[in-house]
Amino acid sequence: MIYLGPAGIPTITEGDTIQGIKDVKKLGLNALEMEFVRNVYLKKEKAIEVGKIAKDLKVKLSIHASYFINLCNPEKIEVSKKRILDSCEIGYYLGAKYIVFHPGYYRRLPKEQAYKFVKKGCKELREEIDKNKWNVFLGLETTGKKSQFGTLDEILKICREVKGCVPIIDFAHIFARQGGKINYSEILDKVRKFKELHTHFSGIEFTEKGEKRHLVISSNQPIFRELAKELLSRGFGTNKRDIRIISESPVIEQDSLRMKKILEKCRD
Ligand SMILES: [Zn+2]
Prior knowledge:
Elements: E1 2-6, H1 17-26, E2 31-35, H2 44-56, E3 60-64, H3 77-94, E4 98-101, E5 104-105, H4 111-131, E6 137-141, E7 148-149, H5 152-161, E8 165-170, H6 171-177, H7 184-190, E9 196-201, E10 203-207, E11 210-215, H8 224-233, E12 242-247, H9 252-267
Parallel strand pairs: 1-12, 2-3, 3-4, 4-6, 6-8, 8-9, 9-12
Antiparallel strand pairs: 5-7, 10-11
């Protein structure tokens, strides 16, 4: 299956998260990434209610955790972990499988040292998640700025070494970080052992430092049609393999619908 949906409550939604989920369904989409990027805005009871509605409507939920995380900075590790864990707890009650976050910034650290910090942080997070029996994956996102920890290879290494961590592929970030180049086939080869993928897609503006801002998808690179073809040729969209593609464009749900159309066209 290919699941599509917006990063955040649709722009057309007048109302709360529940209305947002209903709107996602009404639009013909089936995924929603909830934005806990500034705060975890649901309490346990409400999260259970929202999760039940999403389940009934077959809308797959995930969570984007706080933007204010840096597992590479010893002074920020504890507060970062707390922020991620708050999302994990409420995510569990929501039935959201993936808790997405940007692991941190290298600062002046050698990359291997930054790696060690992120790995240690993830291990400690997993211990806490497992102790609480929260059934969620820690989703480490490929990041868009060169100052950020999170090339695909770094993320995959963490995922190999810490159980319960999975890569979240932000195609636009990879494109921006590589100076406007992307090879979908190579990326999908690297993650072929994951039966289900959770990803982000949008257009993107970038400089030599990497990501500047997310853009509407267009006929410019990164081109969604190229990814769509690659996915379909690899059996995504059948019962064999699943992928969730979250739209992070400024017109979140419209671009999800556009992706849906492009996928349908490529299927014909
Ligand atoms: Zn992100």
